[in-house]
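I'm curious: can you give me some protein's one-letter sequence along with its backbone structure tokens because I've never seen that pairing?
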Amino acid sequence: MPKQLPIVAIIGRPNVGKSSLFNRIAAEARLSSSHPKQVAVVNDQPGVTRDRNYADVNWNNTAFTIVDTGGIDVDPDDPLIDNVQMQVDQALEEAALILFVVDVRTGVMPHDAIVADKLRTSGKDIILVINKADSRNLEMQTAEFYALGLDEPILTSCVQNIGIHQLLDDVITRLPETEEAEEDATAPIKISIVGRPNVGKSSLLNSLLGEERMIVDNRPGTTRDAVNMSFIYQNIPFELVDTAGMRRKSSINNELESETVRRAIQSIRQSDIAALVLDVTQTVAQQDKTIAAFIARQGKASVLVLNKWDLIEKDNTTHTEYMTRLAAEVPQLDYVPKIFVSAVTGQRVTNILDVALEVYREYCTRIPTPALNDLLFELRTQHPPPRVKGTRPALKYITQVETRPPTFLIFGRNTHRIRQPYTAYLINNIRDTFGFHGTPIRVFYRRN
């Protein structure tokens, strides 16, 4: 039986252009020419969309299902609104990614802030879409939307087809994998070598393999394709993937480089472990953080390779000072092992494989349910979830439902009121108790 495609839900208050966006995406990324170009009714009257509309689409060889929902109305006067809200809640429950649509012409409305709060409690990945940006003047009126506390927004105009391709590019980088290969003890451990251009990825791979397998050049962008190389290390099969350097979207100025970035993203999705390479002679850039966040969103284990360490003048405090600075610049990588190497001299390069093997074992680890519930009892006793609107969530039971990455499901009452800081508290203590170094941990909740 084919696996269900990941679902992308379009959410927002009434009349912000959700159905127009749904139709535009369905037209731009439809699976076949027979797919209707307009599948949702569009009307200026709020509340036209009552049921969820679904369309299977494909963008750059990534398939997903787009869902149009009724508008979230927090002060309804329509007797049908309860059913609409139920449809929205169901879409939220099943969605892997949410497109939160707002209207640039009206600015931030009180309902927008309430909807944003509701969406954040879902724990789902959210893309803020500022719609109806039909002119340059309207594009300049977006600053107030940062007050919603979400990531960098994407501006769109469904009428003029502005920003739709950028939105689709962003969507497919955030989606989970749709196919999981059956576990095979003989399958190689796949490691993607990723990072910005010119940090020494190809030199590092050459050093690992002990031969000049990749072209090495000091000009960014030498590697255009993702190249897979298989070998055996300590009787364990590995497969290395060297990828093109990943640059910010604003730096991608030609179709060839855009294609190499797409292939690099695909290589991360297909790998077990992503080795993120940084150049220690350079400051950590925003793109480094973006790549790290992408790796984590994909649920991939990772190691941080700090290359060109031989070029740094050192004393007794150099290592500690660098680690302190790195922790401040990229706190999201605090659980990831750091390896200082020199691809040119070969210093500690094989440590990458040793550490990757340790990380992979933890990536595949399953914790017994009794041990998890002992920890949950201790954590909720020491620090119970804080009250939200006068109600304290009650955590009853935890179990691990997946490996690769380790994924945990917690049952309880009012779990929809649990905020992200408390989830981070649980994840940090799970990691402290059971390890999982180098791998993201996912925690989901279910009300009972």
Remarks:
- The two ends are 30 Å apart (CA to CA).
- The longest strand covers residues 394-402.
